[in-house]
Amino acid sequence: MGKEVIIPNISVDCVIFGFDFEKLNVLLVERELIDSKTGAVVIKDHTLTGYHIFEDEVLDSAASRILKDLTGLENIYLEQFYTFSEIDRVAAEKDKKWLAYMNKGFADRIITVGYFSLIDSTKVELTVHNRNASWVPIDEIPGMELAFDHKHIFDRALEALRNKVKIDPIVFELLPERFTLTQLQKLLEAVFDTQLEKRNFRKKVGQMPYVVALKEKQVGVPHKPAQLYLFSREVYEKTKKERIGLMF
Amino acid sequence: MGKEVIIPNISVDCVIFGFDFEKLNVLLVERELIDSKTGAVVIKDHTLTGYHIFEDEVLDSAASRILKDLTGLENIYLEQFYTFSEIDRVAAEKDKKWLAYMNKGFADRIITVGYFSLIDSTKVELTVHNRNASWVPIDEIPGMELAFDHKHIFDRALEALRNKVKIDPIVFELLPERFTLTQLQKLLEAVFDTQLEKRNFRKKVGQMPYVVALKEKQVGVPHKPAQLYLFSREVYEKTKKERIGLMF
DNA sequence: GCAAAAGTGTTACCGGTACACCCATGC
DNA sequence: GCATGGGTGTACCGGTAACACTTTTGC
Fold first, then answer.
1. In contact, B7 and B55? CB cutoff 8 Å
2. Beta strand pairing status for B6-19 and B111-119?
3. Among A36, A241, B145, B245, which residue has the fewest nearby CB atoms (within 10 Å)?
4. What is the C-alpha to C-alpha distance for residues B189 and B107, in angstroms, rounded to an integer?
5. How far apart are CA B188 and CA B179, in angstroms?
6. What are the CA-CA distances from residue B56 to residues A94, B108, B115 (Å)?
7. Residue A100: what pLDDT?
8. Which of helix, strand or coil describes residue B199?
């Protein structure tokens, strides 16, 4: 560590998803560039987190590193979903200024590998490490100004997330270890931007042996306390059966 | 064209799938290196097709170019599925020798972007362009010796293909425009390495408005001639409905 | 007329969907 | 005792799974 040499033309960008029990959010970092002479604001927008990879580093490690730098968390769910190579993806005027200002020896053309990551946002503190990072609800992204081609990257990430959630129980990565069925339902509703019917939802979850009821219940809530559950990937792996059903 | 400059550390590799009405195959190229002094065979194995990308070229275009170079075909279904960055992925002894022999200015560490492509193999001629290219049934790959990390890339490609086939009607790309239901069934059986029940399969296909029966039938077959069908992506796009059903 | 593959219909079961009411807690 | 979200059962329907026989052609 310390004198790592970057590869100038390859980077990793992370789309970090989190769930606040109401909405699905993405962690964005504020980017601000102020003219040192005039004091005028040259750039003020938001970016995903990303960085170049090092010469002796694999993409997955670079993504983990970036994630840890921003959130302080390790062993987080990360999935590579697409590699972006548009020739002018970092060539907008404001982005060129930004790269010049950074002055880190990046290439003019940068190919970036997109990862999405799912974190239990109850575990992340945005006060210490924050480089002005904040959670933004996914439905606000379309109206925002993002750096580089990050809006495009976000769109692809959300699509990849939805596809993966359908076939693999990764949603649980967005919840605390112990969660209620209502939280799980709200989460899926947020991911797919839809509404689910409570009784049917619970019936379905009841058929998943890997969503296991704990003996504990919520405490201190001003209504009937909910049963707490746990997701066991171990049980999932043991009980899953191959499904071939074509869905198109 | 002509004086294109390659990017030394980024390449594209294509896993080309084809269907011969019996098995699902992959197009592999024979790689042979003979010691110019002794005449001894130094390397003899198989590789996927790939090449570096050019400085002014996008990944998708590089993949199309590579595909066209090998098969002569254009406008082929191509999908990027994963980017491979293991540090020693081209560093095995035989692979280093090969790269030295090629002497094209490639970097020591090459990151490669994997694409899979689906082609109607009745359209490809392996006689003209062939650099010793041949179709290899997918169930023979595990027992073969492949260059670089190409076996790993193939595994990921097959996985990505299966996932995508489940949610999008891309299988039809592997068939001629006009095909029979039995051919479609055999193809799906080959892709998923499974058996399907004829009557149920046909009932299901009967509910897909975008698989349209033609007026024509097979001719010259020594049995009852089969009805020919056509896949219409246009009809598919118009009639598809969003499904959210969780499958895990 | 025989071999070879195409084509078709019925029943049993399961999973999906739609829907309305009682329950436990904090204040 | 009231407001708040937690939790449950039933009826209908559509899709999936299992199964055997008749049809059309080339030779």
1. yes
2. parallel
3. A241
4. 41
5. 13
6. 22, 22, 19
7. 93
8. helix
Contact A163 B168 (CB under 8 A): no
Residue nearest to nucleotide C23 (CA to C1'): A224
pLDDT 10s digits, A1-53: 557 899 999 999 999 999 999 999 999 999 999 999 999 999 999 999 999 99
**pLDDT for A208-229, tens place per residue?**
999 999 999 999 999 999 999 9
Closest Cα in chain B, distance from residue A64 (Å): 14
Q: Where are the alpha helices (DSSP H) in B10-107?
A: 59-71, 93-102
Instruction: Report whether A235 contacts A210 (CB < 8 A).
Output: yes
Query: Do B50 and B13 form a contact (C-beta atoms < 8 A)?
Result: yes
Q: What value does the mean pLDDT take over residues B72-96?
A: 96
CA distances from A232 to A54, A158, A182 (A): 35, 25, 18
Contact in structure between B31 and B43 (CB atoms under 8 Å): yes
d(CA B47, CA B149): 9
Tokens of B8: 């030394």
CA distance A241 to A224: 36
Q: Provide the residue count of chain A.
A: 248
With a 7 Å cutoff on the CB, does A44 touch strand C? no
